Amino acid sequence: MQQKSSKKRVVIFIIAAALAVAALFCVFALYSAERNEREALNAELQKSSMELYIRNLAVSEREEQKQNAEKLHNDETAQRAELTAAMLERDRQELLALVNPWNEVAEDFQPRVVEIGDSKQIDERAYSALKNMVADCKAAGCRAVPLSAFRTREYQQGLYENKIQRLIFDGSSPDSAPYEAAREVAPPGTSEHELGLAVDIVDNDNPELDLTQEWTPTSRWLAQHCIEYGFILRYPDGTTDTTGIVYEPWHYRFIGREAAKAYTESGCATFEDFLNSIKG
Description:
The protein has 280 residues and is of the alpha+beta class. It is built from 8 helices and 6 strands. The strands form 2 sheets. Strands 3-4-6-5 form a 4-stranded antiparallel beta sheet. The protein has a two-stranded antiparallel ribbon with strand order 1-2. The longest helix is centred in the first third of the chain and has 94 residues, at 2-95.
């Protein structure tokens, strides 16, 4: 009887041990499953976080690239605007350059000239204006001919010296001839023709550079319409004391349409007076 009771207790112990082991296994299995689930969840969260980080980084990089591109575009636009403004100001200064017996052309000045036909040249900025003015003058029934335009300093020197010799031949003294010549032919360095912005235009029926040119149909038309093309009659009658040059009804100077309009509206008698008015 005692032996049976001992066996029963052994069986119960074994069963209890088995149940405990089973319980421990279940607990371990549940713990492992929960840990694996947590690890999987953490891994998924880390993956999601990394993907989000990469997306945000990509967005940030794209935004930075966009901002850099916009900044570069703005910088380039600003630089172009500054360059354009500088070029416009340079053009303005060149087109309004004063050249007369007291203001010489710089020796290193390089005009930007283009061909206008018959081996003549003019500043490229005046080309279209001159072409249109002459064409419209002819369309009005006149016979306008550009007789002289850009001149090199050497060519101007030859014209000046030739004038001096002719005056001496006509009776002027060698001492006074250079001063007399300078009133009609600008000494080298003081001629607007060296700028490439001046042009002598005559009537084909009267190609002489003298006062009779004033009464030709061409000169009358040009005197009335030259402003519309950006030209002015540079040496009006009665202004020699200011310009240093005698009246030349054939000599036109390109200063640009806006400046020519302002010149006309100012009421100034000479280009010199006009420049003084806009400076002060």
